[in-house]
Design goal:
alpha/beta; D-Maltodextrin-Binding Protein, domain 2; 3 domains; eleven-stranded mixed sheet
Length: 346
Amino acid sequence: MELCDLATREVRLMSNKKGAIIIILAIATIALSTPLWADKMTVYYAIDDDEAKVIISAFEKKEKVKIKGMRRSSGQLMKVIEAERKKPVASVVFSGSLPNYIQAKKKGLFAPYKSPVAKNYPEKFKDSQGYWTGIYVGVIGFATNSKSGLTPPRSWADLLKPKYKKKIAISNPASSGTAYTVLATLVQLMGKEKAFNYMKRLHSQVHTYTKSGAYPAKLAGMGVVKIGICFAHDIIRAKEGGLPLKLTFPAEGTGWEIGGVALIKGASHKELAKKFIDFVLSKEAQNLYRKGTLAPRFPTNPQAEPPKGAIPLSSIKVLNFDFEWAGKNQDQLSKEWNKKIYGRHY
């Protein structure tokens, strides 16, 4: 029953005018004390549900609100946002790799918002026009089942060795920002022609393609495959969860991500969405990465304390990854990969 209907019925039933006034005042007090957007704002995210729950619950407690959430892989999220562009369901999206955010900005799916919390962030972690801001950093690594008896790969070239045939899991670049980061890394590292030749050879080594970027680590840990290619923080989280995994990085250099947050254009709860963006950029929120239930992502807030096990970019060989190029070429490269490598159109 709607609040206004209830008020009308109560007033009609009350013969005592004084009682009616009291009821109306009580209802008005409740209405004024309850934010109009309570229980209504929706956020989209790419991290696992149990991780998102920690962050969302902390925000709900801080702001005394309830919000809804939906998880998809980052590539799928942007397709949903694009499909809903005329009537957005969500007001904000957070987590997932940056090329997806750059692509969404290019398509006009985001509205600019320069959070005051990000004022002292390094420039590389925020869009100059305010269309996205980074909330964490991650690097691509290899997860090897430590009980498999296999020597862990330590280079991209190693993955092509016969002993790894049909023992590798990786996500699909069409749905996963993780896998697209791998694809964009190889193109930037080798050049497009050599990278696609490499991916054709790697395809024969792959046992499983997943939709979720984090899942290959779990498959490796469970013994479904022996090696998973994904972000290091997802590998570390799976290992800390009890799975037997060894983390290694490619000697030639690896790609890395900036996980983003953005205000969706046409958001129905714009002001609360801005508060949510401010929160996930804050030291308070990024220190939540230190909780054992969350993957140990490296924070972008300079004041936040990195969690145990987090991999700083300075500790390994990483590419000078061109995020703008990766974002602008994402649709083309993903479609080409599906056509030439996976043999399926999306």
